[in-house]
């Protein structure tokens, strides 16, 4: 690989690391060609981009990201065989795919992930990543919690208003008789 090709790969990766807030670094060492093709097919079906890149190129691309310090990836994550999964919209998609794929093939391992520029290191973080709520899910829950008391007040007022009108009607009918 020439220096220009390496530079192009580093530029492309650094642009993705800066613009896509969700990426997972995996280890698929020991997988056969058929197993790798199956993994790539699943990634394609779910809109996940999967690329296999040398660790040195990943490291250099991560160094260009200004907002986050990825130096903790150096010793534990960027060793051995590495593949990177990108999903532009859903931080859970790659974690769910990895967990699902591991049911039939335990050769795929999570080495590390960055979700909204928060770092998760190690295969034991997979369940944590799956259970993370997205920003939109959290906003929806907060709106639901904020709306609940208001809905209770409105329903109490409307139901109480009907009862009050019924009582007044009954009282006015009694006075007439």
Automatic annotation (TrEMBL):
Record carries keyword Cytoplasm: no
Pfam family, one: Ribosomal_L10
Stored SUPFAM superfamilies: Ribosomal protein L10-like
GO molecular-function terms, A-Z: large ribosomal subunit rRNA binding
Claim: Iron-sulfur is one of the keywords in the record: no
GO CC aspect terms: ribonucleoprotein complex; ribosome
Record's keyword terms, sorted: Ribonucleoprotein, Ribosomal protein, RNA-binding, rRNA-binding
Domain of life: Bacteria
UniProt record, GO biological process: translation
Family to which the UniProt record says this protein belongs: Belongs to the universal ribosomal protein uL10 family.
NCBIfam families given in the database record: PRK00099.1-1
Alphabetized PANTHER family for the sequence: 39S RIBOSOMAL PROTEIN L10, MITOCHONDRIAL
Chain's role: Forms part of the ribosomal stalk, playing a central role in the interaction of the ribosome with GTP-bound translation factors.
Subunit-structure text: Part of the ribosomal stalk of the 50S ribosomal subunit. The N-terminus interacts with L11 and the large rRNA to form the base of the stalk. The C-terminus forms an elongated spine to which L12 dimers bind in a sequential fashion forming a multimeric L10(L12)X complex.
Protein name: Large ribosomal subunit protein uL10
């Amino acid at each position: 690989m020439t220096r220009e090709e390496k530079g192009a790969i580093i530029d492309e990766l650094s642009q993705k690391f800066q613009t896509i807030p969700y990426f997972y670094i995996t280890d698929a060492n020991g997988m056969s060609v058929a197993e790798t093709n199956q993994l790539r097919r699943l990634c394609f079906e779910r809109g996940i981009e999967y690329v296999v890149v040398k660790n040195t190129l990943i490291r250099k691309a991560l160094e260009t990201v200004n907002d986050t310090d990825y130096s903790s990836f150096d010793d534990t994550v960027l060793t051995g065989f590495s593949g990177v999964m990108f999903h532009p919209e859903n931080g859970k998609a790659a974690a769910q795919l990895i967990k699902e794929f591991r049911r039939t093939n335990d050769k795929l391992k999570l080495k590390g992930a960055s979700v909204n520029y928060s770092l998760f290191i190690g295969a034991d973080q997979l369940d944590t990543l799956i259970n993370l709520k997205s920003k939109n899910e959290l906003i929806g829950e907060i709106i639901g919690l904020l709306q609940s008391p208001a809905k209770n007040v409105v329903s109490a007022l409307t139901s109480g208003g009907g009862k009050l009108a019924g009582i007044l009607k009954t009282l006015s009918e009694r006075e007439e008789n």
